[in-house]
Please model this.
Amino acid sequence: EIVLTQSPGTLSLSPGERATLSCRASQSVSSSHIAWHQQRPGQAPRLLIYGASFRATGIPDRFSGSGSGTGFTLTISRVEPEDFAVYYCHQYGSSPYTFGQGTKLEIK
Amino acid sequence: EVQLVESGGGLVQPGGSLRLSCAASGFTFSSYWMTWVRQAPGKGLEWVAKIMKDGTEKYYVDSVKGRFTISRDNAKNSLYLQMNSLGAEDTAVYYCARKDGDIWGQGTMVTVSS
Model:
């Protein structure tokens, strides 16, 4: 099983600042089958990024993903008020598929 | 509009069974593999099971193997999760998702308690 470790656990930022979220895999993720999901309180998750770097339909271009192998990053260039939420990385390259434990982006 | 709507959650006693359903609309259901993901109260996401387009291939997380069965009825645009021998550790919101999560349902709550 591929274990995904996200850091930091909590990220405190002000609107307009840059957010960098990390996801490290215990082994290489095949074909960059890494996704990032956003979950706001009381809501279902929403896909932001798939294939490590491709934005899902309707996702603003302030969100970007990068990385390969065992290290992946989600960057929000300028955090907007609606971006404060929990973010999960997800590997879907090797069964059992797994999620990271999440990074909470909170208002500073 | 592409939509997934789960149903069938509720309160069940330990050792009991429950069948979750997920109704799909707005897309060609038979063209997509489907997934169940769960989230225990206050916890993160956990991938549970996946079923391929024609239902012939199924995959499960170890903790539910032998207890849960994922299935689908392409004629009814529906996904199912049969859950048997339920324990407190299965208490969670259960989400169905298209493919590996490009579309999510709103979730249905399953509570296992006496």
